[in-house]
Amino acid sequence: MVHSDPAPPLLDHYGTLFSCHSTQCDEPQSRVTMEECQLPLIDLSALTSDDEMVRRACAVAICKASSEWGFFQVVNHGISPQLVEKMRREQVKLFQAPFETKARSGVLNNSYRWGSPRATCPNQFSWSEAFHVPLTKVSDEACYGEFTSLREVITCFAAAMSELSRLLARILTENLGHGKQAPIDDICDETTCFLRLNHYPACPISPEITGLVPHTDSDFLTILCQDQVGGLQLMKDSKWVTVKPNKDALIVNIGDLFQAWSNDVYKSVEHKVVTNTTMERYSIAYFLCPYYDSSIESFVKPSIYRRFTFREYRDQVQEDLRKTGYKVGLPRFLLKGSEENTRLYTPSITAKS
């Protein structure tokens, strides 16, 4: 590989593994035409309406989509198109840097990752590269090296995404009966929230390789800003459906913690990113997380899940991934019949989330 090549060595690594192990993999994924879905589209400008009924209808739509889909889109969300465009330009510039620069220069808190190091067969591969950036580091000048112009833009972008995530989280929490002073404000902090800058190169070798393997998110909620290439798929009514990109919208999805908090009222839905043979894709995800020692307990009684901390949940996820390659997730924390439910649960190969 040429030293100045920006591409991570995905082809070198996965090409060999694919040719050696493709016949040994379970549940191969094929590139078939997927049903395209239009996620619920919610205009957040209604939340500032003078009409209380209009404001209430918008909140109801958010909660309904979180329950029925686990995903929805928002427009008029307060993040300017100009800021999104600046962030995208800086993101592209960053990923076009030489691979050695991204991997070894310590940029963005040394958060660069590529592929799936533990992959042993095609349905475990993630054909992608990413920077997994803690919010505590986005304003740190020492993290940027030669990418000085990125700092101001990503700091503004992260602050805007944080404000939006908390607004949505408060609405979802209030719907569960916790009034205007939602506890989400007390337990979520930038010390555990993060941004992930994603790049999915074109994948020429096999339709069985995903850009990001099927997974659920281990947070309260995620806000995704994506380009127009498409590739996001989610599980709806026991089948994969493709999300049609909307240039004006951000995508919001519920994470595992909100599903537990809501006693399964809100759904943390499995999703993945499929590869494209000719086009690369960029996206940015913001993850709203609590303090590691925050207690997660259902607001609705009787509770389905036992009380646990965010740290305990993450540790269990990582332990399952190390031992089996699978994220079991919430079924590990069921109060009654948890062992039986865990045995009945059929997990997917999952990304670290």
From TrEMBL:
- Keywords, alphabetical: Dioxygenase, Iron, Metal-binding, Oxidoreductase
EC number(s) per UniProt? 1.14.11.13
Kindly list the biological process annotations in GO that this record carries: gibberellin metabolic process
Q: Which family does it belong to?
A: Belongs to the iron/ascorbate-dependent oxidoreductase family. GA2OX subfamily.
Q: Show the catalytic activity.
A: gibberellin A1 + 2-oxoglutarate + O2 = gibberellin A8 + succinate + CO2
Q: Which residues form the Fe2OG dioxygenase domain?
A: 189-290
* SUPFAM superfamilies given in the database record: Clavaminate synthase-like
Native species of this protein?
A: Hibiscus trionum
Can you provide one Gene Ontology molecular function annotated for this UniProt record?
A: metal ion binding
What's the protein name?
Answer: gibberellin 2beta-dioxygenase
